[in-house]
Amino acid sequence: MSTGLLVQYAVIGLVxxxxxxxxxxxxxxxxxxxxxxxxxxxxDRPTHTAxxxxxxxxxxxxxxxxxxxxxxxTCGACGPRPPAAAHDVQPLEFRPRAR
Length: 99
Fold this sequence. Notes:
Layout: H1 3-27, H2 29-43, H3 50-59
Helix pairs in contact: 1-2, 2-3
């Protein structure tokens, strides 16, 4: 296997991994916040080096501010909104075929 092909596979692998992580973060934000908090706590210990502690502080997820724009869903008031044209929706009617 040539070096160029190996580099190509490595770049493609990194792109696929990054897109999978972003998709997972979008679909399961609470779970990934818990995972990030656990990793950040492990890295931000007094016995670790300065760069590990800085990485741990950087990985720490942002805390909910309590307003409706952060999407924390702790109060239940930020639930899904109905579609804008919900009043235009009409139920389906099934009629037997005319013979």
